[in-house]
Amino acid sequence: MTAISMPSAKTAVARPAARQGRRTRIGRIAAWVVLWIFVLLTLFPFYWMLRTSLSNNRMLFSDPSSWLPVAPTLGGYERVFGLATIQEAQAQGGSGASISFWLYLRNSVIVATVITIGQVFFSAMAAYAFARLRWPGRDKVFFLFLTALMVPPIFIHLPNFELMKNMGLLNTFAGIVLPYLFMTPFAVFFLRQFFLNVSREVEEAAMLDGAGYPRIFFRLILPMSAAPIATLAILTYINSWNEYFWPLLVTDPTNDDVRVLTVALGVFKSQTPQGSPDWAGLMAATLVAALPVLVLFAAFGKRIVNSIQFSGLK
Q1: pTM value?
Q2: Neighbours of 95 (CB within 10 A)
Q3: CA proximity to 286, closest of 268, 270, 311
Q4: Helix axis angle, 261-270 relative to 226-242, nearest 10°?
Q5: Closest to 269 (Cα-Cα) out of 292, 255, 253
Q6: How far is CA 199 from CA 142, 194, 208, in A?
Q7: Quick count: other Cβ atoms within 10 Å of Cβ 245?
Q8: In angstroms, rounded to a whole number, what is the distance separating the alpha carbons of residues 150 and 214?
Q9: Contact at 8 Å (CB) between 278 and 95?
Q10: 70-123: pLDDT as tens digits
């Protein structure tokens, strides 16, 4: 008589667990593959910019499918920084026109810094009023204020342009900065979310010690909210640095004194010495212009993500 062996209860429980473990590992591997595909897709434009910036512009289209720089040279960077003579620039396919890169860089730094300081300061005060002060109709006013987030920025450029024109501020730093100097709905909402989490008891204890609202705001709320304020400052600086349309709208294309770097890159692209732009020089200038933003994000990227998650923004 043949004996039939039955699987034990322990083995029967282990098999589904093993299958579950294999499915988990496969899912994790698939997630990593998808993640790396997105990472490569994101980084590829930067690599192609670097490859083009290191190529000889005159030889660039002789091997357009090459993954490596074509006739490698630093000529593009030399033209951007004004280190190449007109003859050297034209020999490598450049226009030979002078580029005031450092002037444009200085203008971008001034514009982005002033906008960041003003916008963060005024937005913090507005967020404090919406989060901590009690006054009639506060939530309704905040709701109306937030509806401005639904308005596309392009719709407010025309009235802002008429306002700057009537104030005589075209072709000035003030004309570029003023529309962005004060609060924005996003900045107010972002900081309000943090201010709502400040302990009410701490604020009441300060009032018992005789502190008024201005003193509480400057001596208590702002120091306690240093992390989100720094995050907002970084985001504002990056947005101000990348702004293109408004500086282009309010400045004269022939006026270098207030031209910012993003607009200058557009003018640089329009120069066509050989029937096509100086792509090597343009990519070199774009990489150099993006460098401060990349450094900021690399240094504070984790803090930015954590702050955005804490605020509930997605």
Answers
A1: 0.76
A2: 20
A3: 268
A4: 20
A5: 253
A6: 21, 11, 15
A7: 12
A8: 32
A9: yes
A10: 888 888 888 878 777 777 777 777 766 667 788 888 999 999 999 999 999 999
